[in-house]
Amino acid sequence: MNFHVLTLFPDMIQDGVNTSITGRAVGKGLISLNTVNIRDYAGNKYGQVDDYPYGGGAGMVMQPGPVYRSYESIVEKIGYKPRVIYLTPQGKVFNQSMAEEFAKEEDIVFLCGHYEGIDERVLNMIVTDHVSIGDYVLTGGELPSMVMIDAISRLVPGVLNNNVSAEFETFNDNLLEYPQYTRPEEFMGEKVPSILLSGNHPKVDQWRREQSILRTMERRPDLMEEAVLTKEDMKFIKTLDK
Ligand code: 6GU
Fold it and tell me: For 135-164, how does the pLDDT look when each residue is reduced to its tens digit (9 = 90+)?
């Protein structure tokens, strides 16, 4: 999987993605990171890539030329027109299903805006998806693109150490993950739930499933609408309101 990022701050993306698990995935060749500095395509000797908004108003707008030319450099490199994600708080809110969808692509281009945004004409020409990472406003698209690269990378086979964990985690069946414990068995008077020390694996699995359900009902009741529940789960839930 090849990630291409069009940005005015390539170091920020390189430093972030080349760290920890995604960094190891780059090292192993499971994913690649290609940052393109939009300023390299400024087309003037001052490296200027933004200008005042037509019609007036605060701030600066990124000009279409440099963005278009940096996009073209990627199309020439890979030989086809890839999916281009524009990071914007006006986009569709990113979630796990979208990560799974994007993980099927061979190449993805992330377009990071700054200032008051990017000239609408070039967005209309190259962008295939408008994506937001939540309902708050950030200063640019760099952090959102790193968030998306992280979420998509961990779905690429071989990126996580154990194949099982990408599946069994939070948001499987739309339920939150159960609580985890490790040594010591007692910490400041607090004991690990005894079922986890019993060696009874079916019982442990059942307890964890119930904890997932309880936790989701408590912390994210909105997720329960879409939760995939078994007959046993439903029985357990009925025992709760007594
Ligand atoms: Cl994708 N961009 C910006 N600038 N702010 C955001 C965002 C994206 N998602 C949430 N806030």
Answer: 999 999 999 999 999 999 999 999 998 665
**Is the whole-model pTM more than 0.70?**
yes
Residue 137 in contact with ligand 1 by CB distance below 6 A: yes
Q: Are 103 and 158 in contact (CB under 8 A)?
A: no
Alpha-carbon span 238 to 215, nearest angstrom: 16
- Taking the CB of residue 52, how many other CB atoms lie within 10 A of it? 12
Short-list 117, 107, 85, CA closest to 34: 107
Q: Is the CB of 53 under 6 A from ligand 1?
A: no
How many beta carbons lie within 10 A of that of residue 67, not counting itself?
25
Q: What pLDDT does residue 133 have?
A: 98
Atom number of ligand 1 nearest to Cα 144: 1
How far is the centre of ligand 1, averaged over its atoms, from the C-alpha of 92 (Å)?
Answer: 11
Task: Specify whether the CB–CB gap between 14 and 35 falls below 8 A.
Answer: yes
CA–CA dist 48, 41 (Å, integer): 9
Ligand 1 centroid distance, CA of 136 (Å): 7
140 lines ligand 1 (CB under 6 A): yes
